[in-house]
Structure formats: C-alpha cells, structure tokens
Design goal:
Rossmann fold; seven-stranded parallel beta sheet; 38% helix; alpha/beta
Amino acid sequence: MTPALQSVPVQPANGAARPAAPSHLLPEFSMKDKVVVVSGGGRGLGLVQAEALIEAGAVVHCIDILPDPSLDPTSEFAVVAARAKKELNSHLTYHRVDVTEEPQVTEVFEKVAEKEGRLDGCLVAAGINYESPALEYSPEQVDRMLRINVKGAFLTAQGAARIMVRFGTPGSICLIASMSGTIANRGMFASLYNTSKAGVMQMARSLAAEWGVHGIRVNTLSPGYCTTQMLLNLFEQYPERKAQWPSENMLQRFSEPKEYRGAALFLLSDASSFMTGSDLRIDGGHSAW
C-alpha cells in the first residue's frame, strides 16, 4: 500500500524566517475600511449578510422599518452589533427608515456620508411577499407590494449612487431579487411578488448601464427557497409545502440564510470587479430542470 503523502513545510534555503501569511489570502474579497449600507438589515437575510460584511472588514449601517432592535440586548441585531465592536473592530449602526419615502432615504445616506466620509457598497434586501390569487388582489395590495419591493429598491439604490457619484469613487450595489423573478413558482399564487422581483432584475440591468461610467456596478442576487421568517410564516398556512418545495430542486432541501454570505461578499467586493448588470441565481438547481 502506498503510504499517505504528508505536507511538509519547506524552509527557505538560506535559513531566513518565512514571511507571515497575509491576513487576507484572497485580498480581493477584503472589505477592510469600506462602508456599506444594508436595507432590510434589522433581521433575517439582511442581517446575516451584514454580519458577513463586517467579518470581511466593512463598517455597516443597516436601515429597516422595524423599531430599533439594538435597544433590545437579546435581539439578533444587538448580538451582531456587540460582536462587531468587541471582536471585529468595527461597528454596526441601525437607522429606522421607510425605504418608500424618498426624504427619509436621502437623509440616512447623507448621515452615513457625513459620519464615514465615504460609501463603497449597498445591499438592497428590504422586501415583502403577499400571496393571493391574481383575481383577488386589491388595488391597495398591488400598490403596497410594488411600492416596497420596486420603489423602495429603486430609492435605496438611487440614494447610494448619489453619494458614490458625489465622492467620485467606484462602488457596488447588490439588489436582492429572487428565483421568482425568473420562474413562476409551482403551486404558489404570487403574481405580484414575482412581477416585483423581475422588475428588480431589470432595474439592476438598467442602472448598471447608466451608472457604469461612474464606476458603479449593479447586480442582483436571486435566492431560492430559504428558511427566513417570511418562508416559515407560509408554512403555517400551507404546511404541505414544507415537504413539497425541497423536492423541487436538485439538492432536495431548503437553503439557509448563511449560504448566501459568500455570494453577497463576492458581489460587493473587488472579487467581482468586472461583473455588472448580471444576476447571480442560487436556487439549488430549481430553475435548471
């Protein structure tokens, strides 16, 4: 039997000490000293992504419509904020903002710009889902869905881009779309949600075309079925989906929020420096059948 090969450190021939390994073996993924705004960052997928960006070295400001979660020391947000300060030499700041109100969005980006003196990235994760047969949607429900998922995404991206253009520095904007912007979900009546996410994808392509001259990249990230609170709430009304939906993708399971950490970091860092106007779909192969 051939003995197992072992890795043996090779010493420099002259006996000199080997230089220390760099802190980032892939420096293009580093977010050190960069400033990022995350909408929908009060909890769930947005907060998970915010923590990943902090781990990569970024300073992060989260905006959300929720009451300030940092005031509750037991909340997920407060735990991440404490870790950012104590372990990661950074800070996570919360701002309560309605992303559908342009004055509020403009004000928060101005505050971030004034405090940090720069803006390098924006992750647009705020959004809602409401399921209903298309024949039963009320005008009010249509307006709310499109106002939050489309108008809110646009105003957030616009607010970020205005600061980037003012500073004259390149930046990256990532809008959270969905595989539902590409496919119609089997057995789920979500025509307006699907429409809104398709709109986000086209929005990103259009903004990328317009803002590329400023060095601003705009892409979308399209998750598959992910165990966020939004999905878990649906199981209360439709318990059969808990078993059905995992069977519809090639990996036969749901995804978890943490499985999108690397994707968001890739899109917001220099690792994707030549990527814009594109969609990164991560759906376990659901759309590839």
